[in-house]
Design a protein that fits this description.
CATH class of the largest domain: Alpha Beta
CATH superfamily of the largest domain: Methylesterase CheB, C-terminal domain
Number of strands: 14
Largest sheet: 7 strands, parallel
Distance between the termini: 50 Å
Shape: globular
């Protein structure tokens, strides 16, 4: 049976071109089109597609509000299209927080051209997120509205006012209830750590927000973050995390000396390497690498310089990036945790490390942050 796709976009050209890509792919079928967010909501409720492809900027109702309404009434995997601008990145992050499963840059030159790069990417993303109809743990459910900064969901429109922000404290990140008997907050093992390294891809922005907002400002080790994301997005994502978290979060820069209570997000399009004396190198890396940034690259350099004093965490994402690096870390005595299948948007990267026999713990996303506090802060 084909995966049924609803395409929601106010551009007739884009609807037609995306529709051709979907209909020409084996196992995919366009069930209908919508020209604005409200029509997208109405047709999702009526047709129950397997995947919704949604633009952000549309008349009547924008993609963020439409996503929020769909996820509250009829949870459906939603793939957002985003412009490659700083403002577009902020809007896309809003859409992910509202419940969208993943996003793709809206590159008209690739969609309109003869290259099949965009077509292959679109098909891969649709297949990856299809079937995740039930709600997955999100930053919104982890952080009740009254406990979050008042301006977390920023406007997707250019020129919106930006209000002063106050960094939250550990008290503003309450514990969530345990949802499954096999996914609990772990007790401290007593091991001492010097570094926390986290890898993520599809579903990662919300998963990272859920985890990092649980960490106190006094978190005793530095944190390296590798999230698969375009270069235009990582600075906006680091800014958002920094607003929401008690720890400091910045986009990594070449020459940064890492310090406790500070998270460093690998820039999109680059590789983040740990060098001697806890110094970061941010370099382009070989063109042959599939992921920029790549968790395998970062993890390999950690294994060289930190050995077994690291806790490596692999979160939701397509593919197996992080698995080879986790093998190197595991061989040096590092601890490896992974997100469990039921709370992942795409159970690819965590499954790879689990199947390789590398995981010391497998946890639900809502319990990982507090478990990290227990483990690394030793109680």
């Amino acid at each position: 049976m084909s995966i049924k796709v609803l395409i929601v976009d106010d551009s007739q050209f884009f609807r037609r071109r995306i529709g051709d890509i979907v209909n020409n792919a084996a196992g995919l079928e366009v069930v209908d089109y919508a020209v604005d967010g409200q029509e997208g909501v109405d047709k999702t409720l009526a047709l129950r597609p397997d995947v919704v492809m949604m633009d952000i900027e549309m008349p009547v109702k924008n993609g963020i509000d439409a996503t929020r309404e769909i996820m509250s009434k009829c949870p459906t995997p939603i793939l957002m299209f985003s412009s490659l601008t700083h403002e577009g990145a902020r809007a896309t992050l809003d859409a992910l927080e509202a419940g969208a499963a993943d996003f793709l840059p809206k590159k008209f030159e690739e969609i309109a051209g003869s290259s099949n790069v965009a077509a292959q990417l679109i098909k891969a993303r649709i297949f990856a997120i299809a079937g995740r109809r039930r709600p997955i743990a999100t930053a919104r459910t982890s952080l009740p509205r009254q406990s979050r900064p008042t301006d977390t969901l920023t406007s997707s429109r250019a020129g919106s006012p930006v209000r002063a922000r106050t960094k939250p404290t550990a008290a503003t990140t309450p514990a969530t209830s345990v949802g499954r008997e096999d996914s609990v907050v772990v007790k401290s093992s007593g091991k001492r750590y010097k570094l926390l390294a986290i890898a993520s891809s599809t579903g990662g922005p919300v998963a990272l927000q859920t985890v990092l907002t649980k960490l106190p400002a006094s978190f005793p080790v530095p944190i390296l973050l590798v999230q698969h994301m375009p270069s235009a997005f990582t600075s906006a994502f680091a800014e958002r995390l920094n607003r929401l978290c008690a720890i400091e979060v910045t986009e990594a820069k070449n020459g940064d000396v890492i310090k406790p209570g500070h998270a460093y997000l690998a820039p999109g399009g680059m590789q983040m390497l740990l060098d001697r004396a806890n110094r970061l190198k941010v370099v382009p890396g070989p063109e042959s690498l599939n992921y920029k940034p790549s968790a395998d690259v970062t993890y390999a350099t950690i294994a060289k310089h930190q050995e077994g004093n690291t806790l490596a965490l692999v979160l939701t994402g397509m593919g197996s990036d992080g698995c080879d690096g986790a093998k190197l870390l595991h061989a040096k005595g590092a601890t490896v945790w992974a997100q469990d299948e039921s709370s992942c948007v795409v159970y690819g990267m965590p499954q790879a490390v689990k199947n390789a026999g590398l995981t010391d713990k497998v946890l639900a996303i809502d319990n990982i942050g507090l478990s990290l506090v227990k483990e690394i802060c030793n109680g």
